[in-house]
Amino acid sequence: MKSQKNLLYCSLLLIGCLLMRGGVSAEDNALVYVIDIRTEIGGGVSTYINKGITKAEDVNADAIIFDVDTPGGKVDSAIKIIRAIQETQIPTIAFVNRQAISAGAMISAACDQIVMTSGATIGDSAPVDAQGNEAGEKIVTYIRGTIRSTAERQGRNPDIAEAMVDKRLILVRLENGDIIKLRPEEYFNEQDAGTRMQVLCAEGELLTLTTRQALEYGFVDTQAENLSELLAQYQIVEIDENYRDDENDVVMIALTEDGILGRQEELGTDKVTPIKSLANAQVTKFVVTLADRTVFFITSPYISALLLSLGGLGLIVEIRTPGFGIPGFLGLLFIGLFFGGHMLNQVPNAYIVALIFVVGLALIILEVFVIPGFGVAGILGIILMLASVFYTFFQSTDDFSIALLWLSISVILTSVLAILATIFLPKSAPFQHLALSTVMSAEQGYHSAGSQDFEVFLGKTGVALTPLRPAGTARIDNKRLDVITVGDFIAQNTPVKVLEVEGSKISVEALEE
What end-to-end distance do the CA atoms of the chain give, in Å? Predict the structure, then answer.
């Protein structure tokens, strides 16, 4: 799975082992990559961490340290990060430098080592829905199984991990020091049997551990107050090929002092050869670039919904306004930011989904300006646009109901903004500056050719010969005239009435039947 025979098998051991071996050559300093997890975990963060791990692998780093200070985040993103950590061949350390809550605790549990600063906390990993309420049983069961298997893989007590997720469990310490989980009925049975036990986490509570508790319960490996202190405790070793993991043909360990003693007792001191210390390691920090931060920002559900709403508003205003101007440009810009951000976030098939949205938009434009009425093309266009947005949200959240929620929020917000724009935009100062408001009246001496002829149609009625979107042709008093609607678009064959005549401009409205 990770290496063949005679390859270097790395693990992290205390610097005390280095002293026992009589020293390690400093000629080849270790290379350590530090990747920050110091924000809410989302799709952008998982992409960034995957890039960091890949970069560390490309330069053959000796260890990866995740600098963790996070309140949690999206479970699906955390699981992607866990898989990336489990798949890498490089030893990993979670440095909990304040808090590893919820998804942060799950990610930390996946690392070979967990190191905490004094006063830090880890735990409280119960999943919640988009409204912050407790997730359903199906989700809780899935997350409980995930964190349990993650802890088992690293030799940590899986019952402690489960107690961080499921508040129905009771975590107890037995008289012999073992820490186990019990369901309420099991706990009462043990009580009735006279079993002596100490409750560490009661029913109805989620386990959150301080640094002292995590060390006492054996869930984390050691304590360090800063990166230098952490590095001083570890070194790279080679394990004799005859004592490697037969199942996986690899040993990837990162052990503290107690673990070293246990491992040496099993192998013998001559089976573990120190290679280099991390104390003087070359530390490279994988920096969050401006582009990464932009992707984090754009792909957050709140900003994504806002971008979609503003983009939709711009396109609606542009379609209702002749020509192509600022609203259309801004609409396309916001829509482009939405899809572009998710493309950079490596959403599957993002380019195809964006193309589907463009096809849907083209069908709507075709329906409005070319095809009479509003039928199959317009409906299909709306379906394609909504489907492409829903797919993007679904790939980002990995949850059907949450994706549907954010799509609904985007549609509702777009509708509200469009209504407000219709009411207030024409009266706003910026719009007045953009619009031509000068009236060339006859009283001021302006006369257009044939204007008197058109004034005779004022107040007359007729029928629209073509769809008025907003301009078109109507028959008024048995004459074909170029007209423009003053309200909503008017379908073909709709009765109309002339409201205003300015030169050759004839404004009409639909008659109520």
Answer: 76
The one-letter amino acid code at 157 reads N
Number of domains the chain contains: 3
Which residue, among 484, 488, 475, 474, has the nearest Cα to 504 in the 3D structure?
484
- At 124, which CATH number? 3.90.226.10
State the number of CA atoms in the 13 A half-sphere of 448 facing the CB.
12
The residue segments making up the domain with residue 49 are 11-137+209-286
pTM equals 0.65
Q: Which residues contact 103 (CB under 8 A, 6 or more apart)?
A: 41, 70, 72, 73, 74, 75, 77, 78, 125
Nearest residue to 140 via CA among 170, 165, 103: 165
Name the more confident of 295 and 66.
66
In a domain, 248, yes or no: yes
Nearest Cα to Cα of residue 409 among 5, 131, 102: 131
Q: How confident is the model at residue 435 (pLDDT cuts 50, 70, 90)?
A: low
pLDDT tens-digit profile of 55-92? Answer: 999 999 989 999 999 998 888 889 989 999 999 988 89
| Spatial distance between the Cα atoms of 39 and 68, rounded to a whole number of angstroms | 9
Structure tokens at 110: 């996946």
Label residue 180 by pLDDT band (50, 70, 90).
very high
Short-list 148, 151, 189, 186, CA closest to 165: 148
Number of other CB atoms surrounding residue 308 within 10 Å: 26
Q: C-alpha 254: how far from its chain's center?
A: 31
